[in-house]
Each structure stands twice: as structure tokens, then as C-alpha cells.
Amino acid sequence: MKKLLCIVLSLFSVAATLLCAVPAAAQNSYVTQLKNAGFPDSYATQLAELKEKYPNWIFEPMFVGVDFDEAVAQERTPHSQQLIQMYSGNNNKGYYCTCSSCYKNGNYVIQEGSTWVSASQSAVEYYMDPRNFFDERYIFQFETTAYDASQTTSGIETIIRNTWMYNSNITYKDSNGTTRTYTSSTYPNGVKYSQAILNAAKNSGVSAYYLASRIVQEVGGKTNSAGGASGTNSTYPGIYNYYNIGANTGYLDGLRWAATSVADNKTNVNANMRSAATTSSSLIVTVPSGTTVSILSTTGTQADGYKWHRVTATVKGRSYTGYIRSDLIGDAYNRPWTNPYDSIINGAVYIAENFSQDQNTGYLQKFNVNPESSNMYAHEYMANVQAPSSEARNTYNAYREAGVLSAARTFIIPVFDNMPGDELPAVRNVKVTNITSTSATISYNKVSGADGYEIQFYYDGAWHHYVNTGYNSKVWSTFSPSSTYTLRVRAYRLSGDTVLYSPNWSSTVKFQTLADPEKLPAVKNVTFSDITSDSVKISYDKVTGADGYEIQYLNGNGEWKHYVNTGYTSKVWSGFDADSPYTIRVRAYGIVNGTVIYSQNWSGTYTFTTAAEGFVDLPAVQNISVTNTTANSADISYNKVSGADGYEIQFYLNGKWKHYVNTGYYSKTWSGLNAATKYQMRVRAYRIINGSIYYSENWSSTVSFSTKPTKVTGIKTANRAADGRSITLSWNAQTNADGYTVYRLSGSSWTAIATVSGGANNSYTVSGLTPDTSYSFKVRAYKTGTGNLGAFSDAHSTSTLVNGSSIAQVKNIVTSNTTDNSVNIAYDRVSGADGYEIQFYLNGEWKHYVNTGYYSKTWSGLSTSTKFQMRVRAYRIIDGTIVYSTNWSSTASFSTKPTKVTGVKTTARSENGTS
């Protein structure tokens, strides 16, 4: 469903202050930020609730600059531009236009298809007013349609779930009616619809979820029977238009558009001719789609990313010369579209080029109120007034299921002048009283000037309309038992048939209905205490919403009999026979209009035995003492109770008291306990009468103790630092322990050097050690509490690595017996050294000469008549690696002698014999 496409491409700039994502703060702080950005109070309050929940969301106002009523009137000119579908969900809401042009002879005029009629003024006002959609589901009609790299095929599958495209490869019918699977060199085995949509998003720069929602809106269904998706139209067989582009009066227009390729010298859209080769230059004229132009010249790629043609064209009989973008002339969309893949890919390009600049939200593509657009109130993608909110819900579902709702997102929201209902204040003092399982009284203060009130309830992540009412106090009776509800109320005024809602909501109120008595849950935790020969105290948990409880007992014939109805959850009942077993069960009940209605859910069955005649309860056990604890045992003692035949010991484990042992001892070592564990225990006495045990109802005080950790095992060296200054120890963890103490042998005694907190932290690095030195360590675990130390581990001996600084300096270098090419070099031996490095200073730097095990040796092969500087350092060989000392000797100097003079001879003699 489309309006005539009057396409204008102009750069969209938002006259707004960007709201940066900020950390969560008080809601009032967000309200202030939103107001500072230019949002009015009626926007800021609701948007602040979303901002508080999703602090990464960014809201930008787009100031329309016209009154809201004026914008509605322009959008409805003519009424046939705003359509709504007649169906049960829209009936009885005043959403269908009843003007003389749209309602004739008692029937609504069908504008498109068989069910699409003109939307009423109140419907257009409702869907144009952004404030009606400020919840986390419908806010996405204001999200920018720009490509989002976080979107996935899984999210797309969520959007197309209820269509034939879900989790399916693309199949289609060609022009001959033959069913084919779409393949290509990239997808030789076929491709899913979801992948095609994601490819289209990446290629066009448009949101994948927006494209998927658009496709579902236009051609979605359980089957591909929609005109743009079937490929079976007799006029345009094998043609596809998944976005219904160009479908001005119906899908046939769209198929005609998808089947038509535009000549190279014709405009393919309504193209803006500009005064210069840039989108920021002034507009000369809009050249209608399909107009023949003469191309005079073509520019290179400009700063705005486009190439431009300088052209002449005739519009309405007048000739114009100017610049048109090169992509707006000729067929830029690879028509005809003979398969779904081509339609999805190329249609997305069309949307990007024609709607993604100054109509870059779902809302703006339906209601083009952007003041920057040269086609304000026109050039709209669809006529369906409900399309933006419907598509927004699809996007929300995809984001939610993908778990990315809280990611950073930008929403561009129109702000009109003189919004309706601004003058009505918020409803105050909302109360919910007289709550039953299915009804409640909702009341609130009257608002001066209001004609009525709207009540909304919050569920499924959004606010939903419940009722419009003139009452400010009324019993509503459509609720479910045992359910929690959250509601809010706002006032409205009537303007003719139009409802003008206040943007100012009451505070939210939460309440819970009572349970349906028949569905009250089962009574739990039935217990018996204070048992005598003829009485017992029966206790059980309270059931929310119950008015009382019925106790039944099992008679000798195996029949359940009523014993009592009671409001008590703990009471002593008498009249029982001595030394007799009884089996009971309990259920809750409610009283509705004076009638007792029993729950269908019983407790389990429970049995107790009354005491024998003459049984006297025993006193509480006194003076419990726990001593000599080990890792798995403890000595437990207490005072003997006169008349007792034994004692029951219980431990508190996993939130409940558990029986440990019955014993005749009142002082004994008990083993089999868990190491490094804190226990709570209690003791009571018992008597044995006629072979039956009768426990005292009087427990001792609760006593706590902890067992010790076990001996630490597995101690070893985990790592030695290369500098020889530290060693890392590790050992087997004891997760029940609270930590460990590390000890080092100092002389003949062990000294604690560190405490490691946490039983799972089973390593420690000992620092400050001396390189090339042996050490011994022990570790023991501890449990917080006096004396709760485990046994020492075995001693672990280890050593630090050698460090160059620990190897002593070579001293007393002496050079002797120098010749013309050799010298004897001697120096003091370094204890522990495996060898020595000799270096000479040559050409301005120290050069390695030799590594040697000698500390006195004659070295030959030196240069004649040369002065040498030399130095020496010791080294160690550790695990096959040479570790050099960092301590060099002092520098020594010597010179080699000249070589022996040779070749002496007479080269000349004087005549007089004197020379």
C-alpha cells in the first residue's frame, strides 16, 4: 500500500543537541537532560523511564516547527493517503473515517484491496503522536534505519518466524511457472531468505531488521501468496517486488515498476536538480521519474560521495539546466527483478537512496514531517497508519531474542508545536482496594477539565490500553487469580469524536489479586511437636490468600475423615488415644460470599504416634562441649539427663536439621566428619517405652564447631624467577579451607612468612630471596576459628636460580711475558665459576675474545705493536645455559712488542768510504 512516490533526496540534519549515553542515574537527572536537549515535559518524563532502563539509548528531538493539528491535517490531504485495515482489532475504536467522501450509503469506501479504508482523524492523531509509543516495544519506529553490524541472521529469523520464509532457502517460480531454487556462484547450493536480507543490509547500509520488518509488512504470510512475492501474476509472471516499491494503488503497480527497466537517459526517481554538484546546493526543480534528460558532462566523485551529471531537462514545458546525481538517471536498481534475491538486494538499495537520508526512521517513512524534506507530508513509503508500530514490534522481538536490547541505539523523535492534551495534569492518588481473586476497585482524584480517563496495564514489556472510562472510582472484574498487575492512569478531553489524551501519566501502582480458593497451593512443612499421650501440636506453613485450613485423619477403614476447620497454622490438638499412630493431611480453604471453598491441593500425608501412658517429657540436654577436633572427628560431651535411655544428635545441613545418630553415650569421639567444615549441632534426650522411642520436645542449645583442614599435599616449585629473587610454590587445594599459612625454614626453626586467603588459592610467590640459594618450605591449611589449623605439609626443598649479580668479580689481572703476538693473562680464581669471558676494547666497543676455563694462560695471535685494553668476568653454566656475571673486572692495559727487524742490507756506499 503506497502513496505516490514523490522522491526527494536531501541531506538530513537534525537540529538537536545529541544526548550522549550516560551511566544509570536518578530518573529526574534523565528528565533534566532530555529537557535540555529540547524535549517538552510530556516527552521527557516517559523517555526518561526508557533511558533509565537502557542508559545506552540516545534520543534526539527533530523539531517539526508546525502545530500538531496542522501536521495531521496536511497528512490527511486527501483522506485516501491515510489508510487502516477493517478487522475486529480495529473495530469500535472510531478509527474509520466517516466523512462524506469516505463513508457512503452506510458503508465505508474501500480505498485499496478489499479491507483498506481511510483512517479517521482520531486514528491519524493517535498514530502520529509519538508519545503514544514511548515504551520499549514501539519506540523502535523512531530508531534510525542505518545498518547495524550487530544484527544477525538469527534476529532476522525471529522477525520472519511466522512466514513461509522462516529458516528456508529461496525458491521461486520463473516466467514459465517452473519452480526453481535460487543459486549463484556465491551460493551454489542456495541461500536462506535471512542471509539475503542481511546481505541487502550490508550492501545498502540499511538496518537488516528494518528491511525484514518491511518485507513482513508488505508480503509476509504463512505462504508466499502476496502479489509481490508469488511470481505467478499472469500479467507479470516471474516478477518479484518484496518491498512493494511503486505499488501506488496496489501490488500490480509494484510489479509493473519491478518489471520496468529505465533507459540510460531517463530519471529513475523524482530527482532533485541542483545548482551545483553537491547535495547541499540549492534546489532548482524536482524532475519527475521517467523524464528524458540531456547529459552535458559528468563530474568525478565529489565530497558528498556522488558523481553528478550536468543536464538539461524539460519540466512542465519549461527547460532547466543543472546538476542531478548520476545514480538517479538510468536504472540503478538492476530491473527487472526476476527472482526474490534480486528484489531483496536491489530494493534495499532503492530504499537507501530514496528514504534513508531525510526519512531515516520507520515513522518518517510513513509520516514525512521532516522540515528538511522538500516533499514534506508526501513521498511516503506506505499508507497504512499502523505500519510503523507494527514493524517496531518486529524489531523489538528480534533485539530481545538476540539479547542486544541494551546496546547503544539512536532514536530520532519528531516534536510538534502545541501538542494535544498538554494542559491536563497528571492523575493523582491512584489506589487499588477491595481486591478479590478476580476484581478490584480502582480509584483516583478527579482532574479538572477532563472528560474521562484511560487505564493502561503493563505486560509483555509494554503498556496496553485497558479501558476509557468516565469514572474515577469503579470495580473492575476482569482479572485473573493470584496475578500481579501494574497500572497507570491519565486524563483525556474530547474534541468532537477525537480523544485528546494528556501526556501526563499518574504514578504506576502495582497490586496482586487473591488466589482462587480451589487453586490455593498445597500446604507445606507439616510438623508435630509437644506430643503427649493424648495431644499433639500440629504446625504448617501459612498459605497466602487462605482463610483457613482443614485437617483430616485416616481412620481404621482407610477413609479420610474431617477432623477440624481452623484458622490456626500452629495449635495443640487433644483427644487422641495413648501410644497410637495417626496419619493426617491438611489443605487450605477460602471463604467466598460466606461459602467455604476448599483447595484441590492437599499437603502430603504425615504420621505421628502419641506417647505411652505415664510418659513425662525429658528436660533439655545441658552443657554441650566439643573438644579435640581433627580433620574428621570431634569429642562431643554433655550432661547426663536423668531418666533418659539415650540421646539424638542432629546436625544442621543444607538448610535443615538432619539426624546424625542415636546413642547411649553422653561423651564420645565421633568420626566420619568432613574436613575443614563448620557444623551446627543440637542434642535431645529420649526414652524407650514398649519398644518405641519417645523423643524429648526440649532441645539443647545450638552449638557450633569446625573440623580442622587435612594435611596439605602436593607442595612443589611451580616457577623460579629468572633473576633468582623469587620462587612460586603450589599445592593441592582444599576448597573447604579458609586459607593457608606458608612457612620457611630459618636456621633450625620454621617461621610463618605469608597467609593466603581462600581455599581455592593454592599457590604463593615468595619474593626477596637470594639467587643461587637453597630454601625449604612447608604449608598448612586453616579454618577460621581458634585452633583450627591443619597438619603441616611435608617439607619442600628448592633453590633460586643463579643471577649474574651473584657471581663474584674477577680480581687482580696480571699480564706478563708479552711478545710481539702473545701475552700471558692471569687473574684470581672465582669460587664456583665454571669459566671466564675475556673481552678486548676494539674500534670503540668491547668485543668478545674467548670463553675459557683457565685463569692463567698465554694467549697468542695478537696484533704486533698494539696497545690493548681488556676485561674479564666469570660465568656459571646452569642447566646447559651460560649465566654471565654482571660484575666485570677492572680494565687492564698492555702492549705487544714490535716484531724482529729483518732484511737488513747495504743499499749504497759513498765513494770516499765514509758512509
From TrEMBL:
Domain of life: Bacteria
Pfam families in alphabetical order: fn3, SH3_3
Signal peptide: 1-26
Residues in Fibronectin type-III domain copies: 426-516, 522-613, 620-705, 708-803
Keywords (A to Z) from UniProt: Signal
SH3b domain location: 261-333
Keyword Signal: yes
Entry-linked InterPro entries: FN3_dom (IPR003961), FN3_sf (IPR036116), Ig-like_fold (IPR013783), SH3-like_bac-type (IPR003646)
Protein name (record): Fibronectin type III domain-containing protein
Cross-referenced CDD domains: FN3
